[in-house]
Amino acid sequence: MNERLQQLLHSLTAERDDFRVSLHLLEMEAKQEWEKAETKWDNLQLRLRDAGYKLQLETKEEVHDMGEEVDKLQHKLSDKVADLRVEWMEEIHELGEEIADLYQKIRKRFK
Question: pTM for the full model?
Answer without folding.
Answer: 0.44
